[in-house]
Amino acid sequence: MNLPLTRRGLGAALLAVTSLSAGAADLTVSAAASLGNAFKALGPIFEARHPGTTVVFNFGASDALLTQIARGAPADVFASADQDAMDRAEARKLMVPGSRRNFASSRLVMIEPAEGALGLKALADLRRPEVRRIAIGHPASVPAGRYARGALEAAQLWTLAEPKAVMAQSVRQALDYVARGEVEAGFVYATDAAGLQDKVRVVAQVPTATPVTYPIAAVAGAPNGAAALGFLDFVASPAAQAVLARHGFGKP
Amino acid sequence: MDSAIWVTLALTLKVAGCATALNLVLGVAAAWLLARRRFPGRDLVDAVLTLPLVLPPTVLGYYLLVVIGRRGWLGAWLHQAFGIQLIFTWQGAVIAATLVAFPLLLKSARTAFEAVDPQLENAARVLGLGEWAVFFRITLPMATPGILAGALLVFARSLGEFGATLMVAGSLPGRTQTLSVAVYEAVQAGQDDTANLLVAITSLTCVAVLLAVGRLAPAARAR
Question: Which residues contact A82 (CB under 8 A, 6 or more apart)?
Answer without folding.
Answer: A62, A143, A146, A147, A210, A212, A213
